[in-house]
Amino acid sequence: MEYAHQVVGLWVWAVVVSHLVEHTQGQDPTLQQVFRFQTTDLYGLQQLYAEWNKSTPDLGKNLAGWRQIPNLLEIGPLPEMPCPCYSESWQGVLCLRQLEPVDPGFFYQLYNVWIVGLTLTDSSLTGSLPPAIGNLSSLVSLVITGNKGLKGRLPKELQFLGFNLNILDLQGNGFKGSLPKALSSLQQLQELDLSRNKFGGTLNVDFRKMPWLRTLNLSRNLLGGSINPDYFQDLGQLITLDLSSNNFTGPLFNLTKSPSLNSLNLSFNSFSGEVRASNILNFTNSFNLKVVDLSNNSLTGLLPDFSAWTNLTVLDLSYNQFQAAAFPVWIKNLQRNLQVLRLKGNNLTDQFPNHFLQDFKHLKILDLDNNNMTGTFYIQDVIALPLLRSLSITNNNITDVVYNGSLFKAIERFGINLQGNPICHQILPHDYLKLCVCEQNCIDPEIIQDTSERSFIVIATSVAGSVLAISIFIISLVFWKTKTEKQKLQLQVQQHFAEKDIKPTIFTFNQLRNATEDFAEKNKIGEGSFGIVYKGHLLENTEAVAVKQLFIRNQQSITEFLNEVVVVTAIKHRNLVNLKGCCVREDQRLLVYEYLDNNDLARHLFNQKGKSQLLDWQARLNICLGVARGLHYLHTSAQPRIIHRDIKASNVLLDKDLQPKIADFGLALFFPDEQSRIITSEIAGTRGYWAPEYATLGQLSEKADIYSYGVLLLELVSGRRNLDHSLPEHKVYLCQWGRDLHMQSNVMELVDPALSLSRDEEVAVRRIINIALLCIQVEPDRRPTMAAVVATLEGSLNLEPEGMRQVSQEIEEEILQDAIDLRVFSAQTMGGNMGSSTVSLQAR
C-alpha cells in the first residue's frame, strides 16, 4: 500500500485513436479521445492482476484483456498506454467517464475516467483478494463470485470503498477467517452477499452503520456464537436476510425496525429460547413479509403464531423443540397466499387437520413428517387443491386412509406419502390405495384387470435428438431430384402437420449449413453413436443453437417420422432439452435444439482439467433434483410415456446457471399407459448404467431408468465414473464399492475428495447415497419410483423420510447374493451388439 499512497491524487493519461472509440454525441469525430485515469485505480487493477495471474488458468478467457500497465509514475506529455475501458476493455471492468472542458484550440477531447464496477463471475480465479482492492475507491459494484480457488481472509482495506460501494457480492468463493470489522464502514451498501464461503468466528460487523442495506446474505459459512442484537437495529430498508446454515446460538434478535423485510431465513443454526413472532418481526407492515424459515434450530415454547402475516407464501418451522400441541388453528389466517408449509418434527399431536386445508387454494407443498398426528386421512379433502404437488405425512400415527373416487387419475399431478404410519405396516398385494400412499406405487386396478386383454405395443422413437428413438421430421431437398419432386415432398410434410395441433418448425438445409459455417470442425461440440453435434447461429436469430446431424440407419417411413416429430415437439419441461425444429434431405437428417452453455455433466465431473471449475455440493444437489424431475415427467406425464434407457452423465446438459436438462433421447422407448413392463431383444444404452433385469433378460420398465439414475447419483457424489479399471480392484465398480462401504458404515469414503463439505452438507450427502443405493437394488420392485425420489428431494433437502434413510442389512445380503451370477448376455444370445462385457454388479 505504500506505493499506492505515494501516487494518491495523481492522474495517468491514456491516448486512444478516435476511430477506435465511440464518440460523445455532438463532439468532433476528427479529434482524438484522451482518457485520464486516477493512478490509484490503475494501481489497484495492477495489483489484482499481479495476484491472480500467477495460477489462474486460461488468462485469455478468464481475465480477457487484462495486462500489465508500465511506468505509472512516468507521466509525460500524453503517453500512450493500455486502456482498461472503451478501446481495450478488460473483462469485468466498468468505467464512468466525464468530459473535461479544454481550450478550443486543443487537438483532443479530454475525459476524466473512474473505475466504478468490477464483475468476475466463475472466472476460475486463484489466490487472494489483495489489500490493493482498497485503491479502487470509486467502485460502486464489486462482484467476484463462483471462484473456489479464491481464498484467504478479506482485507480490511475494503473499508476504503465505503463512500461509493453499493454492492459487495463475494458469494461462492473460498474465503475464510473472521469477517473484518472494517466492513461496518461500508455505509452506502445496499447489497451484501458473502454466502457459500468458509468465514468463521463470531459476527462482529455492525450493520446499523449500513442504513441503506436491502439484502444481507451470510448463509452457508462457519459463523457462530451469539449475535449482538443491536447490530440489526434500524435497518429500515432491509428486504432479504439470510443467515442460514451457520452455527449461530442464543436467542433470536429483534427485527421490528425492519418494516420492509420480505424474506427471513435463519434455518440450520442453533438458535434457542422461546419465540414470539410479534417480538422479532414488524407487525405494522406485516403485508411485506413473504418467506419465513426458522427450521432446524433449538427453539422452544409454543409454536410461534404468524397469523398476522397474512401474505406469507413460505413458512418452515420444522425440527425445533416446540411444546407438543395440536395442529395450530392460526394457520387458517394464511390460507389466501400460503404456498409452502413445513412443520416437520415439531411434536404436533391430535387429529390430522383434514377439512382445515380445503381453503388453501395456492398450497403447493405440505410437509408434516415426523410428528404424532393421529386419526384418518381423507384424500378428498386435499385432492381439490389445484396447485398441490407434494403432500408428506410420514412417520406419524395415521391409522386409516379414505378415498372413494378415481384415485389414480386424481393424484397423478402430485405425490402423497404416508410411509412410517401404522396404516402402512401391513399392505396386501392388491391393496392399491395403500400401495399408492405408502409406497408411491400407484397402479390403476382397472388397467391391471384390462391388461390381460390388451396387446403390448411399444413405439421405439427418438426424443430430442437421436435416430433410434425419436428422429424428428423429414423434408427432402435433394440436389439431383427435380424441383417438382422437392415440392411434392414439401407439400406432403406441410399437409401432414396442417392436420396436427402441434406443428414443428421446419428449417432448410441451407439455413443450418450457414448457421454452422458449413458444419465446420471448429463448431463441432460433440459426437456419439447416432450423430454429430455442432454449435451454430441462425441468421434470423442471434442466439446459439445445437444442430445434430444424424447418422441414417433405418428406412422408417416419412409418415412414421412425422408422427414422432409431433409427439416430441409436444414434450416441454424445464429439465428436458427443448427441440426447436429439424430438417431432412434424402441423405441428411438434422435436429435443432436449444444450446446449453455449460456442456454436459460428464465434462464437469470427470475431466481433470475442469476441476478448477468444480461443481460444489449445492450444484450437485440441484442436478440430482433436476434430473429426477425430468425423468418423473417422462415416466408419468409425457404422452406417450417414455423410458429413456440411456441416463448417464454425458446425457445431462447444464445451462449457464448449472441447471440440468436431460438430452439424447435416442434410445428412448415410448410405451402406452396400460403397459408397465415389456420384453425387448435389443439392449441399448451404456455399459455400467444397465439395470440387471434389462441387461440379462431384456426386461424393460421405468425401473431401468431408476437404476441408471442411482448410478448417476453415486457418480455425482464421488466425482468418478461408475467403471474405472485404473483403481484398485475393490473400487473398480462404483456400485459394488458403494454397497460394500454401506455395509461397513463408511459411505463417506465415496465422497469426491475435491469437495469441501459443511456439517449439514455431509448429512445431505449421506441421504443422497442412501437414495442411490435404493435405486440400484437388483430387484426392480424394490426400487422407488421417480415420484418418490422427487417427493423426497423436494420435501426436504436436509432430512430424508424414514423409509429412504437406509438400505437394510437384509436387502444388502440379497443384493450381494443376486450379484454372484449376474452377467450380461452376449450379443449372440440377446441379438444386440454388446460383446461379452460384464455388468457393473459383478460379484467380488
From TrEMBL:
One of its GO terms (molecular function) is ATP binding. It holds the Pfam family LRR_1. InterPro entries: Kinase-like_dom_sf, Leu-rich_rpt, LRR_dom_sf, LRR_Rcpt-Like_S/T_Kinase, Prot_kinase_dom, Protein_kinase_ATP_BS, Ser/Thr_kinase_AS. PROSITE patterns: PROTEIN_KINASE_ATP (PS00107), PROTEIN_KINASE_DOM (PS50011), PROTEIN_KINASE_ST (PS00108). Residues 519-797 form the Protein kinase domain. SUPFAM superfamilies: L domain-like, Protein kinase-like (PK-like). The chain crosses the membrane at residues 456-480. ATP binds at residue 548. Its main location: membrane. Keywords: ATP-binding, Glycoprotein, Kinase, Leucine-rich repeat, Membrane, Nucleotide-binding, Repeat, Serine/threonine-protein kinase, Signal, Transferase, Transmembrane, Transmembrane helix. Residues 1-26 form the signal peptide. It is found in: Membrane. It is a single-pass type I membrane protein. The keyword Ubl conjugation does not apply. This is Protein kinase domain-containing protein. It comes from Ceratodon purpureus.
